[in-house]
Every structure is written in C-alpha cells, then in structure tokens.
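Dear colleagues,

For the upcoming journal club I promised to circulate an example of a predicted protein-ligand complex. I picked one with MU-OXO-diiron because it came up in last month's discussion. The inputs are reproduced below in full, followed by the predicted structure.
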Amino acid sequence: MNEKVSALLNDQINKEFYSAYLYLDMANFYSQKGLDGFANWYEIQAKEEQDHAMLIYQYLQNNGEKVTLEAIGKPDKTFTTLMDPLKAGLEHERYVTSLINTIYEAAQEAKDFRTTQFLDWFIKEQGEEEKNSMDQITKMELFGDDARSLYMLNSELGARTYSAPSLVL
Ligand code: FEO
C-alpha cells in the first residue's frame, strides 16, 4: 500500500476512537442532566465510532499493513446547554468527513482503488451522520424549550438500538 494512504488510515483509527470518546462524553453530559434517551443515542453513537475504528484496523491488517495505536485524546469540548453537544457533534462530523475525503483523495492519487472502494462506505456513512446531526439540531430548535416536547424527544432518542455496521470485510 502507498505509504501516505497507509499512514492516513492508521491515523484515522485514532480519530474514530477519539470520536467514540467524544460521543461518550456527550452521553455522560445528558445522563447528568437526567435525559437518558439522549444519553442512549450518544452511547450507541460511541459504539458506532468504535466500529469505524475497527473496520479500518481490520482493513489495514487484511492488506498486510502495520497498525500503530497511538494515545487517544481527552474529550476537549465543554457543554453547558442541551444544544451544545448537538452543535459540537455536527461540527465534529463535518471535520471527520473532511478527513475521509483527504484519505480518499490520497488513495485516488496513488491509484489505490481497493482503498477508494473501501472508503465508499465511509463517504456514505458520513452523509448519514451529518444528516442525523442536522435533524437533531432542528428538532431541538423547534421543541427544546417546551418540557413536554423535550420529554417526547428524549423518548424518541431512547428508542434507538445498536446494530453492527453493514460493511463486512
Ligand atoms: Fe466515524 Fe462519526 O464518523
């Protein structure tokens, strides 16, 4: 594998685990606020991020590439309002999209079409994650100030269940 592509993928493992940690911190915030549905949603999100990391880890190993695991950073966002994690989540997902795009570009330049094909799933996944984040912000803007509506929103997010990623290596 092209050295740059391999290094970027290796780095992305760390970024995905950091994402998991960030979402777990959001779950933690909502849990402390008594919003167990929001907490559930973000706990599942954290699991999905770990799946993303493991998919890249497995992909590198399947291709005979050495994986180096680095330290995972401390979640560095401060949340005050119920809206804060939602906005931070969208900003973070946009950042992750840019990282995936960079790897995709490097793979294309190296004519590493196996990797671009592997990344297609991530490109689509990022689209879904950004949409989920935007939808949540919209709902919070519309209903967040009303206690009864917030209760229903919390129930809706509490109904989310985990399912393993659709991408199988
Ligand atoms: Fe792994 Fe939320 O992107």
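Two points we might discuss: The helical segments are 3-32, 36-62, 84-109, 113-143, 147-158. The chain has a mean pLDDT of 97.

See you all on Thursday,
B. R.
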